[in-house]
Amino acid sequence: MTGAFPYPLEMNSDENWDIIVFIHEMGHNIGTHHTHCYDPPLDRCYNEEGDCYNGSEVCQVGTIMSYCHTCSGGLSNMTLQFHSSCIVVMRTYVDGRSCPVTARNPCYVNGAYNGTERGTNSQPFNTVFEGAKYVIPGGTIRITPGTYSTTFPVWYPLNRPMTLNTNGNGTVVIGQQ
Q: Which entry of 2, 113, 156, 175 is 20 to 30 Å from 35 by CA?
């Protein structure tokens, strides 16, 4: 990646690499595959990925999830669009997910709560880990008094400041007692 792209954006530009890579990877994150991996393939610009199209390469202008940039002509073979079949797959993926949780301040936690969790006062999380995960940097986690046995996975980076508040006269102990 070069850290640059044309502005305004230009279709089929040799300078679109950063935009294409970023949007291509976002496409994977929301459920779509490479265009040559659909059955039947949406294009045939690439044939070297396992369990995907493996016939003769047929170069053409491709879309964001294609590998048509590997053909003669490079990035001039790429449009800044998703193939309509990729759009259907991504919409289905997104529509099948529950509403994403947004970062909050304050973020509420109540270990006794068992409904839909959003980190709000009326729909709190039920673990301190979730509160720590979704509170904004420098934010406050408001914890309903109770006993919480929360373990933070070693892979989860808690490298941002936060305040734990027990909504009253309580104590928060971090670590073993």
A: 2
- At 5 the three-state DSSP class reads coil
Q: What are phi and psi of 143, to 5 degrees?
A: -105, 125
In order of 1, 70, 129, 150, 175, the CA distances from 165 in angstroms are 43, 55, 14, 16, 16
Residues 44-77: tens digit of each pLDDT: 999 999 899 999 999 999 999 999 999 999 999 9
* 157 burial level (CB within 10 Å; 0-12, 13-18, 19+): exposed
Q: Per-residue DSSP letters for 62-129? A: B-TT--GGGSTTGGGGB-SS--HHHHHHHHHHHHTSPPPPPPBSSEEE-TT--S---SSSSS-BSSHH
55 vs 47: CA distance, rounded Å: 6
Element (H, E) at 19: helix 17-29
User: Domain coordinates of the chain in residue numbers?
Assistant: 16-96, 107-174
What single-letter amino acid sits at 96? G
**Does residue 78 register a pLDDT over 90?**
yes
For residue 40, whether the previous peptide bond is cis, meaning omega lies within 30 degrees of 0, is yes
pLDDT in tens, 82-131: 999 999 999 888 877 666 667 788 899 999 999 988 899 999 999 888 88
